[in-house]
Amino acid sequence: MRNMAAGAVQYTNDTDLVLKFQSVKFGNMSLVELQSLLEIKDKQIYQLTKELQEAKKEIEHNAKNIFSEELPTPKPFPCQYKMPKTLHLMTQSDKTESLCLSTSRLESFFVTGGADLTIKKWSSTGRKLLELPGSEKVVLSVDVSPNEQFILGSSADKVARLWSSVSGKLLHWLQGHLDSIFVGKFLNHSKVITGSGDRTLKIWDIEKSICLRTTNCFHSCSDLSTATDPDHNTYISAHSDNEIRFWDTRNSDCLWTSAGLHSKRLTSVCVSPSHTLLLTSSRDNTLKLLDLRTRAALFEFSRPTYENPANWSRACFSPDGRYVAAGSGNGCVMLWDAKTGEYEDSLLSEKSSPFVSVSWTTESLIAIDRSGFVSLWN
């Protein structure tokens, strides 16, 4: 413990110094009392060290979960899904024009974007939770990450931005497109895909804010669907040349291009919850249902009064995949049966403004219109 040299005492380590300090401070204490005190201090140090180690593990676990592949479990839907009937809520979502809509995986919130340059986060009942500024031009597309940690907004200012869905903090800018970004979608927990008027598709690493791959897609991209397979190896794009294209996420290969699917530009593509069907919508005022396994068209949905109102209009499936919904230029949301191809019903709001995007949850059907309002039907 110590060395004797030239009549001086030299302490070889920190423990000896501590003992010297304690011998001075506690000189009047017996050896037994001092030993007991040291044992108490040792227990306190051990407990503190244990708590610090547990806190470190929790911090590392939480940081890892931000980009975790583990997904929240969606709400189960009834075996017999009921058609929405009653207009439950109608509230202003944008000061000018609403352009885009997306629902979180757990359906606990949805987000909207529009011409007032902001993205808004709403509760499932229609209460505004957050307002996310930052875009310099109109917001053309919004999406929520699979783990619900992030909100992606794509804008006409050629930038896609990533916000925290919890704090509303702007986290990342994804810059590199040469024209408006019409759509941005999460590929998985850490990657997103954007489609632009510059005729390219880009895959981004959101942890590093870098572009991993740029693909020439030949025509302006209107929409994307990334929910094609569990392994995220394929995604689908919709284009201004009236066609859809299938792409391999591992390279830039175009796997398949439709031929004569629609007579005017595509505005949306949506994969069914079963991952077996694809719904397309077009400015030719029709929607088509394709079998993803054979890529054959099964049904065409249309009505004399149905009109696709915008180049960014989005149609959707019901949560059980039984029905499809699309907003119309005549101020209603039209519903069709995906099993029979038959028209089912139309949902009306208190306004006659065209509905440009719809999203269907287990609780409500949500739609936004060009006058800046969001409507929820039970």
From TrEMBL:
Keywords: Coiled coil, Repeat, WD repeat
Coiled-coil parts of chain: 38-69
UniProt xrefs under CDD domains: WD40
Annotated GO biological process: autophagosome assembly
Family matches, as InterPro entries: ATG16, WD40/YVTN_repeat-like_dom_sf, WD40_PAC1, WD40_repeat_CS, WD40_repeat_dom_sf, WD40_rpt
SMART domains in UniProt: WD40
WD repeat ranges per the UniProt record: 132-173, 174-214, 229-257, 259-300, 317-346
PANTHER family: AUTOPHAGY PROTEIN 16-LIKE, AUTOPHAGY-RELATED 16, ISOFORM F
Protein name: Uncharacterized protein
Species annotation: Arcella intermedia
Organism placement in taxonomy: Eukaryota, Amoebozoa, Tubulinea, Elardia, Arcellinida
